[in-house]
Each structure stands twice: as structure tokens, then as C-alpha cells.
Amino acid sequence: MECAPGLDKLLSADNLAFIQKGISISVASRDRRLVPSLSRALACVQSEDSTQLRLVLVASQSQDLLRDINAGSAVAVGFTEPSTHRTLQIKGR
After folding, report:
1. Which residues pair with 80 in a beta bridge?
2. What gap in Å lies between CA 77 and CA 30, rounded to an integer?
3. Could you tell me if 64 and 92 are in contact, meaning their C-beta atoms sit under 8 angstroms apart?
4. DSSP 3-state assignment of 4?
5. How many CB atoms lie within 10 A of CB 68?
6. Neighbours of 50 (CB within 10 A)
7. More confident site: 8 or 43
8. Which strands sit side by side in the sheet containing 75-81, from one edge to the other?
9. Domains in the chain: how many in total?
């Protein structure tokens, strides 16, 4: 997921730490007909150059989502800590 100019300029250190810890991660996109696709991510890691978030998905459970993202559709990722309901949403391509 591309983010510009740098994640550290867009997100606080607290939010960057939050999205990379053991929380619930939902990833969504849509196809050309606006039909949504959704999958769960297992983890999120910030790239070394702070320009991308890398999400770990199970490919066999994320085929529609990956198809839509690879076709150029926007993506939204929701990071939620179930015990507190703290949630952060990030959108990108």
C-alpha cells in the first residue's frame, strides 16, 4: 500500500506503533462495478524507507481483494484493538 511522502509525516509514532502490534486488521477494496471485496490481514509492517505499509494476507482467502487491488482500485485498511475499540483507518492505493 503506497503512502506518500512518508508514514512518519502522516502518522504519529503512537499510531505507527499501534498499527504494527497484535490487533484486528480488515482490508477492503472494490471492483469496477463497485462490488466490495474484504479480507483479514495477519500483520502490518512499515517499510524501511517509511513510504509503504506492507500487509500480510492469506492469498487463498483474499483472491477477490487482491484482484481488485492489482486492477488499481483504492484500498482501505481498518486497524482495531478489540479490547478498547480503538480504531484507525488508512486509505491508499
Report:
1. 24, 87
2. 13
3. no
4. coil
5. 21
6. 16
7. 43
8. 53-57, 36-46, 24-30, 75-81, 86-92
9. 1
- The pLDDT score that the predictor gives to residue 63 is 98
Between CA 40 and CA 61 the distance in angstroms is: 8
CATH code for the domain of 58: 2.30.110.10
Domain presence at residue 75:
yes
Full DSSP string of 27-84: EEEE-TT--EEEEEEEEEEE-TTSSBEEEEE-GGG-HHHHHHHHTT--EEEEEEETTT
Query: Is the residue at 72 inside a domain?
Result: yes
Place of cell 512518508: 6
Q: Which of 28, 40, 37 is nearest to 77 (CA)?
A: 28
Q: Alpha-carbon distance 24 to 26, whole Å?
A: 7
Is residue 1 a part of any domain in this protein?
no
The residue type found at 27 is V
| More confidently predicted of 27 and 50 | 27
